[in-house]
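Duplicate of earlier report; Transcriptional regulator, IclR family input re-posted below.
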Amino acid sequence: MTPASTLSEPLDERKFVVALARGLDLLRAFKPGETMLGNRDFVERTGLPKATVNRLAYTLSVLGYLRLDETLGKYALDAGVLSLGFALLSGTDTLELARPHMRNFAREVGAAVSLGCRDGLDMIYLETIRSETALTLGLASGSKLSMLTSSMGRAYLAVQPADVRAALLAELRKAAGKPGAPGAALIAEVEKSIAAFAGEGCCYSFRAWHDDVNAVAVPFREPREGRWLVLSCSGPASSMGEEVFRETVAPRLKALARRLGDTVEAPARTTARHINRPIKPPIKPLGRGNAR
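Output:
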């Protein structure tokens, strides 16, 4: 079952319903691109007993969250999951307000800009808008990236209370592997990025999750709900190097984040009503000749 330290709030065992958590773990077992999973897959991915998996899968299919293919003996996600996702996206005011600014940012910078939030040990993309000329692996809504490899994940970790961040890093270390494994070096890189956030106000990811993708991310707190969201901008490392992200993209992304909510740099001055004001200074396109 999902570790308690990956939850967004401290665990109160008196209120925690284990059966519900186990059912949601079955839904989380699906990975991008997978359409069918069998009971054996659920057992392997959740660690739950086979009998428990059978009962949970049946219940979720009756409720419309899973659909059983009797020929294959496997389950697919059903429309109930989509309705929950749509309710989330349609109920996020910040997303609606951010879209036009994200669209302008992507067009003028010539890259992909995304808005995301935490999902366990990953960051999930609520929206991604790509420039028509962007040659990058922009991820679609619902896609997830590890906190370890994504600039978005590192930025989220950087603004968490010390105890929450420590618990998350402990789980990430466990997931990355034992000391000496490739994951250990990645953890050290993440901790370095978090430490640098205090002076930079953003986090970078240079070729961390893909050999030809560089990215920068800036967190901000929603004025109404108070949760942390993260803006990120990604582009091809071959044409948008570290210098471009540090000197050109990052300052502009921080300016956009300040229009959307409260940032670490200016937590008291920015509110949602400022979002319709143009970003100053105006963003100038990054021509291919400028991207080095």
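The first strand starts at residue 66 and ends at 69.

Merging into the original ticket.
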